[in-house]
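Q: Given only this backbone (709 positions), what sequence would you predict?
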């Protein structure tokens, strides 16, 4: 590939914002090259290929110039500082997680007093006892960018392994504590990924990659995911290689050792919708693996193992899932037994509660849980509000059950559930200062997509809103990877609602809201169904008199960033502002970076076939930006320097193409965060900074001066 130096000259563009102001933006010119890739019979110029090298001097200069430009733009928004204070005020409330019972018989829970960068892990001797700090991740860094991502206690309760992420990266480190004293032990695991600690005997199993090349930790493809066994008190260099598959370097491998069990389950995924599963008895070093699911074509989720019986959910012959059991000694399909049949609702999370089973069904994206006996017979429904998401804390080891209810207007409400009587007792509820949920309402609607498919959507807004076509709408979607969107609370959204905005969250095809068929209808050669569903949501809001195109904001992250980028190209006339966050923007090369190859089950790749390459090329956000004067909405792209899930090169190349194309006079900016990743574990101050900029950009380009008190 021919190299070229970055040109630091700029292209002058005039931006006429919808609020009547006019300012001149000068976009930094990106480093370019003349590389041409051939995908079967398609030749594609990849002009901004140099931006894939995130450590090159030319890229770093371009990044610095983009950061400066975006900050200069944001600093001129007159209400930015007051808006930050208002957004911050809604964050300052107690955030408490559900308790769970550890193997030391203490109760553990996470809590954030309000403005802490990271939630703190507490414990107490009794459920009503006095809490003490067990692990405070805020002390692990000076700026809150080290996040606690998980804890796992040894079966005897003596040790606690905890995992951390630095600056939002997917890379995981594992540390060990003496549970009783909280003393940090010398054990330290590096370069682990997508793993926790699965305890057995004198140590635990974990999954890790070979150490990456220096300087390419966050961009190079990850290959050869292996499982190791670590013995407490030893160094990582002494860890035993337990499992590897040299013939399939792109597989993920994860281990699962059920509580009080001598069995280990090994899952291999990354190339299909599900994972293959096999199991062996750890008491016999020479035991052979027994196959439970041979392929990655089906979804099988292990719930628990009790008395040598495996309880699991599966999509095999049941697109809405069903609960099954099988003996560990012969777990193949021929020995599967149905306990709870597939129903018209989607079977979501399933967990044991004493000698009972809790099934958390999903109906129209909301929770509808029920309690069963272990033989699969129904005991009762667990009643909830009609629009809510619920999560449970329970175990087969005891009868204590706690659950949390959340929706678009309620951050959390904890209940204690009596398995015998079915009584639910409210124990604690969140209170957000300056926000009265009774002033707002959430409703469920259905609208037709382009092909007539009915799509579900939740709308949240202030009571008494008028359908006069003038309401600002914040339309959010995802539509991929069998992920379900449902009622959830965000403090960052409250300023929008307080200013009369409508929050619209749509359940696009590609997600799991309506089972496997719904998911598959938004994958590979059907991916454009997702974009059409999203566009149709905006058209529905206009048709029903809620809004007009000049008042519609669209936002999505990761696969949702792809969604936003594709929809802007398809219907630039339909939106006023677009926020593609950490998006997959180069659909021809996404599989070449970090774990991008793992997304092929949903997307397909440009190497699969001429038909697949042509289809990906036809909607790839970076490759379909118009350059003929078509007016695009105001666009703020976001990414971060430690994002090793969707590497920043996607957003870099997309933003560079936008800025160099003739798409009208609205601003096309990129916000590049530092010491941050794909989103998880981001410290509170960075979250507030980011949403301040997002909403400042949105209001400014809608011509709205927001209420900030």
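A: Predicted residues:
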């Amino acid at each position: 590939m021919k190299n070229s130096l970055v040109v630091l000259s700029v292209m002058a563009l005039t931006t006429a914002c919808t609020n009547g102001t006019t300012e001149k933006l000068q976009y930094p010119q990106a480093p370019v090259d003349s590389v041409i890739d051939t995908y079967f019979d398609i030749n594609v110029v990849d002009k901004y290929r140099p931006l894939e090298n995130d450590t090159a001097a030319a890229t770093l200069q371009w990044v610095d110039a983009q950061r400066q430009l975006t900050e200069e733009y944001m600093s001129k928004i007159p209400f930015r500082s007051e808006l930050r204070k208002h957004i911050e005020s809604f964050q300052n409330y107690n955030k408490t997680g559900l308790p769970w019972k550890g193997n030391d018989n203490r109760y553990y829970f996470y809590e954030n007093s309000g403005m802490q960068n990271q939630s703190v892990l507490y414990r107490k001797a009794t459920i009503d006892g006095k809490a003490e700090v067990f692990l405070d991740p805020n002390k692990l860094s000076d700026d809150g960018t080290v996040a606690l991502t998980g804890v796992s206690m040894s079966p005897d309760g003596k040790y606690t392994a905890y995992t951390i992420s630095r600056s939002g990266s997917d890379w995981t480190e594992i540390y060990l504590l003496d549970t009783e004293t909280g003393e940090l032990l010398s054990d330290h695991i590096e370069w682990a990924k997508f793993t926790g600690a699965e305890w057995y005997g004198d140590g635990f199993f974990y999954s890790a990659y070979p150490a990456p090349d220096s300087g390419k930790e966050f961009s190079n493809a990850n290959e050869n995911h292996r499982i190791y066994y670590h013995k407490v008190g030893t160094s990582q260099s002494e860890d035993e290689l337990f499992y590897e598959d040299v013939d399939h370097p792109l597989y993920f491998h994860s281990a699962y050792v059920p509580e009080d069990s001598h069995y280990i389950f090994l899952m291999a995924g990354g190339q299909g919708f599900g994972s293959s599963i096999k199991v062996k008895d750890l008491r016999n070093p020479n035991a052979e693996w027994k196959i439970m699911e041979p392929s990655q074509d089906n979804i099988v989720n292990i719930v628990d193992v009790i008395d040598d019986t495996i309880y699991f959910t599966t999509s095999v012959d049941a697109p809405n899932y069903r609960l099954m059991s099988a003996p560990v000694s012969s777990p193949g399909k021929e020995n599967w037994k149905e306990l709870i049949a597939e129903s018209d609702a989607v079977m979501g999370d399933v967990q044991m509660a004493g000698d009972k089973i809790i099934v958390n069904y999903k109906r129209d994206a909301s929770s509808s849980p029920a309690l069963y006996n272990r033989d699969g017979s129904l005991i009762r429904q667990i009643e909830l509000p009609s629009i809510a998401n619920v999560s449970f804390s329970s175990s087969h080891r005891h009868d204590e059950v706690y659950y949390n209810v959340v929706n678009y207007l309620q951050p959390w409400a904890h209940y204690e559930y009596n398995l015998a009587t079915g009584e639910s007792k409210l124990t604690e509820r969140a209170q957000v200062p300056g926000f009265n949920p009774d002033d707002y309402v959430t409703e469920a609607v259905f609208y037709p997509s382009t092909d007539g498919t009915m799509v579900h959507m939740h709308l949240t807004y202030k009571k008494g809103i008028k359908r006069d076509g003038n309401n600002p709408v914040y339309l959010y979607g995802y539509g991929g990877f069998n992920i379900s969107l449902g009622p959830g609370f965000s403090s960052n959204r409250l300023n929008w609602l307080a200013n009369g905005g409508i929050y619209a969250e749509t359940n696009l095809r590609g997600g799991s809201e309506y089972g496997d068929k719904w998911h598959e209808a938004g994958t590979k050669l059907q991916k454009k169904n997702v974009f059409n569903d999203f566009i149709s949501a905006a058209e529905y809001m206009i048709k029903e008199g809620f809004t007009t195109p000049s008042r519609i904001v669209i936002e999505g992250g990761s696969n949702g960033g792809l969604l936003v980028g594709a929809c802007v190209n398809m219907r630039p006339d339909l939106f006023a502002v677009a926020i593609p966050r950490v998006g997959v923007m180069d659909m021809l090369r996404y599989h070449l970076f970090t774990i991008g190859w793992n997304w092929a089950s949903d997307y397909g790749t440009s190497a699969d076939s001429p038909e697949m390459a042509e289809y990906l090329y036809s909607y790839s956000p970076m490759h379909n930006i118009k350059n003929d004067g078509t007016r695009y909405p105001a666009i703020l792209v976001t990414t971060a320097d430690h994002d090793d899930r969707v590497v920043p090169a996607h957003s870099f190349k997309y933003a560079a193409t936008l800025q160099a194309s003739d798409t009208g006079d609205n601003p096309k900016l990129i916000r590049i965060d530092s010491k941050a990743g794909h989103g998880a574990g981001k410290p509170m101050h960075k979250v507030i900074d980011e949403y301040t900029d997002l909403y400042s950009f949105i209001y400014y380009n809608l011509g709205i001066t927001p209420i900030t008190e």
